[in-house]
Amino acid sequence: MARNNYQYSRHTTMQKKRRARRALLLVGFIILIGLLIFGAVKLFKKPAENEPPKDTTSSSSTTTTTAYSTTTTTAPPTTTTTVNDAEKEKRSSYKICIDPGHGYDDPGAVSDLSGGLYEKDVNLFVALALRDKLEAMGFTVIMTRDSDVPPSTIVPSKTGLKKLSLTDRCNIANSSACDLFVSLHCDSCEVESINGCCIYYYIDNSPYIAKYAEFVLNSLKAILPDQDYTVEGNTRAKSYQVCRNVTMPSILIEMGFITGNKDAVDFASEQWRQDFAQGIADGILAFYEAYGS
Ligand SMILES: [Zn+2]
Q: Which of 56, 70, 159, 233 suits a disulfide with 203, CB 3.0-4.6 Å?
């Protein structure tokens, strides 16, 4: 049967629609293939040379890492694990006198902020940690005191108190012919918002005294960057006896303010004390390598 005009035009329209559908399907198929190829290339592509590798653990470690462990990982590496026996033998002839301030019947400054913390205890803790770190590096350490129990040789003062005088401390360092001296203290102030560490030295103590203070400062800054630091070189009239009256380069470190609202929290933390000791040890090692060996 012959098709009339209406039938013919309907047939043509349907043919056009079918062609359009086929074209659409073809385009869709091509896009799908393209997407599949793109995905496969992305999957197997290696990172470029200057592209940092993707660290899938970084987000979880960031949230679980404490402030202290973060500072520990960014601290300069110590050579305690890599130092060989020959180097240790060489270092063993280098003597460092560590002087934990106050002690026995003399508590030094006292902090109400961290539950009645005594300066003498903070000084001794950091001093013993420093001794262990320096000895592990191979150095010989002389302590002016290594406990809070007064030895029988200590003569009580006129008021009946047993304490180590500043002259006693200088004599221990001088009679042992030490190469370096470091005295540890905590500062105090009536104003709680006053915080910060200060390294003191006597300007005529040694030609290298400013360098000694600078090396220790830099190592402390590297391991505890959030603390405030000052270095003060003083004249004879203003300087401390343990900086003036010893025959070796000598610094006195006020590690911070035991009365400070930030420092008192640090002082109560064993991790902070270990980090602070590590900072001094690293500075002493750096000074020894530059001027002492
Ligand atoms: Zn003190």
A: 233
